């Protein structure tokens, strides 16, 4: 961003498609955070070079955000901070990084009503989640996914970590109306 850039104080919708952030993910994080009225964010096929340390240091912060779409072939290991207004999230992203804490990511999306997930590479073995009963109970937060009524998961291979994630959602989403799980074809 140019020196002295103060952000977009009135921006409500931001779509970034094939945009490069040569200085890394902190530049993208700053752009989002200086748009305090942002309600709709779409990140599509970005170019964000990062080192391993940078992967662990950036988050989507947008208190008015209602809709989030991420469609990425690479996992930039973005995280979400508290998104109190989020109603719908569509995640079409590779989640196979060794840095990815998928449960932590989902707890950042816990207030959403609708969650659509397509995860190529989800079950490549790089992330193993021992999501047994003890783990699921430890993840309990009062009101977690309290408004979630629709979950759609695509391209899963029905490995145990994926099934434990489904179990995790089922144990938290008390008003769930639609759960669609489609295996990879």
TrEMBL record:
This is F-box/LRR-repeat protein 15/At3g58940/PEG3-like LRR domain-containing protein. Pfam families: LRR_At5g56370. Residues 5-99 form the F-box/LRR-repeat protein 15/At3g58940/PEG3-like LRR domain. It comes from Setaria viridis (Green bristlegrass). Signal peptide: none annotated. Transmembrane segments: none annotated. It comes from the Eukaryota. PANTHER family: F-BOX/RNI SUPERFAMILY PROTEIN-RELATED (PTHR31900), SUPERFAMILY PROTEIN, PUTATIVE-RELATED (PTHR31900:SF30).
């Amino acid at each position: 961003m140019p020196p002295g850039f103060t952000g977009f104080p009135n921006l409500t919708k931001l779509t970034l498609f094939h945009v490069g952030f040569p200085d890394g993910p902190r530049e993208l994080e700053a752009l989002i955070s200086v748009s305090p009225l942002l309600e709709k964010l779409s990140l599509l096929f970005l170019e964000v070079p990062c080192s391993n340390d940078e992967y662990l240091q950036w988050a989507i912060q947008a208190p008015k955000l209602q809709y989030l779409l991420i469609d990425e072939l690479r996992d930039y290991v973005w995280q979400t901070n508290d998104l109190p207004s989020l109603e719908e999230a569509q995640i079409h992203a590779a989640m196979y990084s060794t840095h990815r804490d998928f449960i932590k990511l989902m707890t950042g999306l816990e207030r959403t009503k609708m969650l659509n997930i397509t995860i190529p590479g989800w079950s490549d073995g790089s992330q193993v989640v021992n999501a047994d009963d003890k783990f699921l109970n430890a993840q309990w937060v009062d009101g977690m996914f309290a408004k979630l009524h629709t979950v759609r998961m695509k391209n899963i291979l029905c490995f145990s970590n994926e099934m434990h994630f489904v179990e995790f959602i089922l144990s938290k989403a008390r008003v769930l109306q639609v759960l669609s799980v489609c295996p990879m074809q």
